[in-house]
Amino acid sequence: MLEGDRASEAGEAPVRRSVRAGAALVAFSGDKLLGGPQAGLLVGTRAAVAACRRHPLARALRIDKLSLAALAATLTLHRDPELARRELPALAMLEANPAALLARAQRLADAVGGAVVDGVGRAGGGTLPLLELPGPIVALDPGPAGADALAAALRTGDPPVVGRVRDGRLLLDPRTLTDAEAELVAGAVRAARA
Fold first, then answer.
1. Which of 84, 94, 132, 162 has the CA that lies 20 to 30 A from 125?
2. How confident is the model at residue 53 (pLDDT cuts 50, 70, 90)?
3. Could you give all domains of the chain from N- to C-terminal order, each with its CATH number?
4. How far is Cα 163 from Cα 146, in angstroms, rounded to an integer?
């Protein structure tokens, strides 16, 4: 899913294309590509993969049994793309329905006295750092304490909430929340302001 669509948009070569182009071995990040456990994956020709297995470092770099089980479960989910979109948080966030995002943002804004504004999120880290994800953002007026103080209070609260500070406002991205989590965040914002 991510491999074919979002990765291509961000200038990353899809794994399938590299294999089809004749690469003997392709290494990629399983957690970033699949939305599962952190794992490095190798695909390629039988001979190239066998050579990697025989390498002295293979034993030190192999995946542990719990991560292997989680990877197998993640791959099983990917056999049904709709199920994977529902069950894997990273895919759900990347492929979130714009109308659902707007509704979630509006509910959060209404609950905390914020405003819904157009914004851009990023997949971040090594996943796809340049991939822009446009969508609604909840902008909070931090009050006299300032945006940095509100952001710090939210990060150290229970549950911790991480936002972005821009132009004197604290921004919360509903893409990273479920509907239930948005309610928790609203409570955390009210507590931080009190």
1. 84
2. very high
3. 6-91 (no CATH), 96-193 (3.90.1150.180)
4. 13
